[in-house]
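B., you asked whether I could sanity-check this one before it goes into the benchmark set. Here's the sequence:
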Amino acid sequence: MAFFSTQPPYMNPVIPFTGIIQGGLQNGLQITLQGTVHPFPNRIAVNFQTGFSGNDIAFHFNPRFEEGGYVVCNTKQNGKWGPEERKMQMPFQKGMPFELCFLVQRSEFKVMVNKNFFVQYSHRVPYHLVDTISVSGCLHLSFINFQTPGIPPMAYPTPAYTIPFFTSIPNGFYPSKSINISGVVLPDAKRFHINLRCGGDIAFHLNPRFN
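And here's what the prediction gave me:
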């Protein structure tokens, strides 16, 4: 199944972080966090909530490294916590990188860590009320990405561009973004190149040479 970005990702967010989920949670939305756990962590928290106050949290995902390590899942409504659901297992390793994915489904959240299913959490409040994500605790985040399954954008006839060609990349590069280049190599070609640039600097230089 193909996934497509629903909003630009949050890149290298400073922890603690709170940000808007554009359009709120929807069935099929997948939120992916990549980062690294601190070498001597205590706790990590990822909250899917309504607004920035933290009084209404639909899903509180809370890995705790004490007592051998376990994960608490809970919901807070009107400032009051509900009964905890605990999984007596720690899927994260101290000082190590991780990928944490939350998949929103009609009846529950499904949580995957490093591409392995970890836990599911049934909705206690309607998920469509969630419009904010917050992350705190002993970790560094590289990005938070938002994707949903769907039909790719409609393809249109590709225009021909004059070479050499320069253009900007809207919103820059971020995880899951791709660029497709279609063309024809000239019969007498010796070489061509494609540069991904930042001002006068070249981050990536692709240079096929036929000679």
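One thing to flag: The radius of gyration is 21 Å. Otherwise nothing jumped out at me.
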